[in-house]
Amino acid sequence: MVVVSAYNDLREGLERQEYDLSFIHPAHVALAAIKSGKYRSVAWTTGYTDYSVMLLAPKEQQPSVATLADLRGRTIVSPDPDSITAWMLRAMLKEQKLKPGDDLKIITTRYQDAVPFYVQHGFATVGATAAKSVAKEWTDKGGKVVLTSRPLPIKQWIVSSKLPAEEVERIREVLLGVAQSDAGKHALSVLGYKGFVATDHDDELKAIAWLGL
Predict the structure, then answer these.
(1) Helix, strand and coil percent figures for the chain, each rounded to 5
(2) Residues near 65 by Cβ (< 8 Å), separated by ≥ 6?
(3) Which letter does DSSP use for residue 69 in this model?
(4) Which residue, among 131, 128, 157, 133, has the nearest Cα to 46 in the 3D structure?
(5) Residue 64, CB half-sphere, CA atoms under 13 Å: how many?
(6) Tens digits of per-residue pLDDT, 87-129?
(7) Which of 50, 124, 162, 181 allows an S-S link to 77, with CB 3.0 to 4.6 Å?
(8) Measured distance CA(78)–CA(201) in Å, rounded
């Protein structure tokens, strides 16, 4: 087993098909590998199939933001540009034909936890986060979520296309059934997950197109 923290290192390894089985948090990295034909998905993670970007704004914001078009000429703060949150934010803007740099400004901070600070202190009109805990803390303090993106699955299991079909099926069966045994439940509890569910290839194709991969 190998842990790969840097997204670009992971991309390079996937391109060379160095990994037979991979558990990948950022959907855009996993989906790009699937699009290439070098990998296929075998399972998604329970509780992480509806990852959505939320745009946070102050309660009394003037002028208020009700649509993405209202952000023309204004500033959005986003996590790291290569985070799945940032990729989803850009997809949201592209849908509405809004071009960062021309129609609005995007500033970035490394972590999602810092996004509310930029909005609270006026450095940005809205802040993009997909962390439900960050959004909850924001709304608990009186802020609001003005817009939410379409959902995507993250934390995906993918396998190399080099693996025989029967081996891929065995891997899928193990992952989908892991929560059915006491040993499996214990392993999941250590990892902090509830289990894994079947994938939807049509949804993956739609996500690939939406993200512009």
Answers:
(1) 40, 20, 40
(2) 55, 57, 71, 74, 125, 126, 146, 147
(3) G
(4) 157
(5) 8
(6) 999 999 999 999 999 999 999 998 899 999 999 999 999 999 9
(7) 124
(8) 29
Find the Cα–Cα–Cα–Cα dihedral 137, 48, 16, 12, rounded to 10°.
-10
The domains located in the chain, with CATH, are 7-49+152-211 (3.40.190.10), 59-148 (3.40.190.10)
Determine contact, residues 39/14, Cβ cutoff 8 Å.
Answer: yes
Nearest alpha carbon to residue 126 among 67, 82, 211: 67
How many CB atoms are closer than 10 A to CB 126?
27
pLDDT mean over 56-62: 86
pLDDT at 62 over 90: no
